[in-house]
Amino acid sequence: MNKKIKLLPLAIAACTFSLPVTAADIEAGGKDLGQVEGEFKVMSILDAEKNNYDPSTGTAYLVKLKYLTPDWNKAKLGIGFYANGDLLNMTDFDVDPNSGEKVARGMFVTDDGSEKSQLGELYLNYAGEGFEINAGRQLYDTPLTSITYSTTPNFHTAFGISTTAVSGLKLSFDQVTQMSFGARAMTDWGLIGEGTQTAGATVRPNLDYIGQAEFHDVSLIATGDQTADTDGISVFGATYSGIKGVEISAWDYYAYDISNSFYLEGGYGLPVGGLKLKLLAQYLNQTDVGSLVADNNQGGTGNFAGGIDFDLFGLKAVLKGGNWMAFAAYNKSSGDTGFFNSWGGDPAYTSSIFSRNAFRENVSAYKVGVKYNFMKNLFVMLSHADYGQSDSVGRFGPNNVEAVTDAKETDVVLVYKPMKELMLKLFHANRTSEYDDYAGVERTQAHTRLVASYSF
Q1: Do the bridges between strand 59-68 and strand 31-47 make them parallel or antiparallel, or are there none, so unpaired?
Q2: Domain boundaries, given as residue ranges, for the chain
Q3: Correct CATH for 3-455 of 1.10.287.3510, 2.40.160.10, 3.30.565.10, 3.60.150.10
Q4: Integer CA distances (angstroms), 41 to 9, 44, 199, 391, 424, in order
Q5: What is the dihedral sign for C-alpha 302, 357, 445, 150?
Q6: What b/e readout covers 11-45, taking b as 16+ CB neighbours within 10 angstroms?
Q7: For 221-256, how does the pLDDT look when each residue is reduced to its tens digit (9 = 90+)?
Q8: Which one of 53, 137, 201, 285 has the largest count of C-beta atoms within 10 Å of its C-beta?
């Protein structure tokens, strides 16, 4: 596709953003009728390597419209509608396999880019004295269920209660029964996960009996077993922030017949010579529960054929000045397997735009980065990560592949926000897979992408 044509989405977005947008609050006759929030996002690939590995063609849109009812005896209903597809048929879904082109499948929830709509959020919220109840389909924000998304996000069906009755302490319990794969789940499985089942999806999201932007039982999402009938995931959370500058959180995810995952994180912030320093540490442990994973190792690599045994340790330091920020992070994984990452989730400090190798087996990962604000609404971020070589086996088509080189990624991100609601983001990612040059096949990226979004 002509590069001048590829810039068309930005022009379309600019025209769209010039239209007036009403306020989010709805009133009639002085009566509160609730709130409406929305987003229009355009994402387009400007340039990439033509090696059948780096996604090189794709222009997608997301339309989000959400309504939150006014309080009714402390209860609210949230309804969120999402639509995703190929913008103006600009993506070439019939690329010649000999051209080196590859479709950016992680922008879409269908294989051909056709529009697919979803009622992703439908939940009830009740806020009482010192406690809160959430029930239904939602963006379930916890360390092991929140992950970077491109257009349509992952959703979960969860029912739970949290309390802040004790000062400085928040306790929560949720039961997660279903999940819906978003657009980037295909990237989590393929490009980022490379079939290792460690990057946020453990089965191929577009399988006929699963599909994206559709809710399915968590056991099917995890194993691909259509006959499995489990009790979902019980999630316990505790966060303490009763001491100034300190926050400690602990989470346990008990997925019946699948896995138990325990996550612990602590952070401490303090001033240092007029600057702000924050120190963080994390620990993640996962073991198998029953034999469902071993019996249904859908990845075909054998990474979890013997069960699950994974530990991850991490450290991070963040230093902030007036108009800049710098950080350094380290992760070390150990155990006999990688992290069986079924339902989204990316807490690792060293993750990058296209790399989450810290969740693979036996990895020492490093990442450094800086952010500089040229002005209040314009900043640039640079980062570099090195992951070494893991013991996880990747899968490309029918082939199992072992690591042959150090995995690494360098990212440059430029963000401009001329107003609160409008964001323009340009990023370039230069990445080398740890499976690069296995059997003489190139697996590198030199990827440039533009994102424009307007929200209200």
Answers
A1: antiparallel
A2: 3-455
A3: 2.40.160.10
A4: 10, 10, 24, 38, 10
A5: positive
A6: ebbeeebeeeeeeeeeeeeeeeebbeebebbbbbb
A7: 999 999 998 999 999 999 999 999 999 999 999 999
A8: 201
